[in-house]
Amino acid sequence: MFIKSPELLERIKAVSDDIYEKSGGLLVFEEYVAAPLFGFIILRFELMREECTLEELDGYERLMQEAAGDEFQVDFMGSVYKKAGVSLQAMQARFARCCEAYEGEAMALSPYADRIRADAAALLKLFSLPEDTPVWEIQVDDELDVLVFGNERKEPMRYEADGFAVNLFTLSPADRIDSEGLVRALFYAKRNGISLASAVMRVSELNG
């Protein structure tokens, strides 16, 4: 699968090494996930500081955005937001509002869109699901976690064969709205050179 291919892993390493060096070792790559529905791969980083201001977080994410270019989206691990005085729960509570606030935000496909969508289709086939089932995320670890949108939340399903394991989770329509809000905020943040945290926390100002 492309999502675990040497080609992709080499590019992720090259970009993350560049970010690490340009940040003086403060930004450390932690994980990546694919978002087939929206057509991109996101790289997540840890910030090796105990605390920072939201303005400093904007600067760090701008550095990451510039290094990633159009190839990847970037974000921080949830623990980083606390260092900037923003709780992850406060952000999550605003994702649905971001969907409306950033409704006109253009969401460009990455160069990897077709290949991660082909991966998503192959994984859906393992569970006898239609190829057009919307796949929100493919989380990559020793096992693959696949998150799809459905009409309601369902019990997880599992596929395992020859040491290859996939867990499938079905999310609700409300989750889809939150996810689209998060994605629109990501693109807004990148276009404006700010952090996702700043983009999400701005929705109160935008909505009046």
Task: Give a verbal description of the structure.
By secondary structure, this protein is an alpha/beta fold. It folds into 2 domains: about 1-105 and about 175-205, no CATH class; about 115-175, Alpha-Beta Plaits (2-Layer Sandwich). About 45% of the residues lie in helices and about 25% in strands. It has 9 helices and 7 strands. The protein has helices spanning about 5-20, 55-70, 80-85, 90, 95-100, 115-125, 175-190, 195-200, 205; strands at about 25-35, 40-45, 75, 135-140, 145-150, 155-160, 165-170. Strands 3-2-1-4-5-7-6 form a 7-stranded mixed beta sheet, with helices on both faces. A hairpin with a 2-residue loop joins strand 6 (about 155-160) and strand 7 (about 165-170). Helix 1 packs across helix 2 and helix 5 (about 95-100) packs across helix 7 (about 175-190). It is globular and about 45 Å long. The model has no long low-confidence stretch (mean pLDDT about 95).
